[in-house]
Please model this.
Amino acid sequence: MRVFTEEGAYDHLVRIRKDPWDPISRETADHSLPYIVAAAVLDGYVRTDSFDPRRVLEPARQRFLKERVVVNSAPELGTLAGGKLKRAQAGYLSRVEIETTDGQIVHGAAAPSPGHPKNPFTDADLGAKLSENVEPFAGAEHTKKLVQLLFSVEKIKNVRELTALMVLNKDAAIDTAVAE
Model:
């Protein structure tokens, strides 16, 4: 698997990282472009649970990451010299090539990610994204109430209705374990 990315993303998610091919925690995985792309390929998605420390540290996943993922800067997708605003407006582009075991190469085009102004979310997309990221911590019922309120936020009489739903109980903490 070969990843080509604009220079700013390469700098931030590869070059300045201690070892982006060997993440040891949620934090190091979600700041590793090689890991993020490997998770997308292995899982078929990138969600909150993609960065669960147990998943990050799975030996087969770590092996795949180290042996199969190559990341390169691709100036044709955006340059540091061109400026952050230009790269942001383009969508912080990356593209992926996957070579199958029979030698075929599947190309993933460089396109702005879902939610970017050039590829905006629909209301359904936004609700689904919110649910997939909040429900594991807040539960289905709490998440449903939050989604409903957010889609009618212009009707609330007091912002405390929203902030009350943003508070989670103390047991809803995200696992931040690090490999020893």
Remarks:
- Confidence is low (pLDDT under 50) at residues 176-180.
- The beta strands are 2-5, 70-73, 94-99, 105-108.
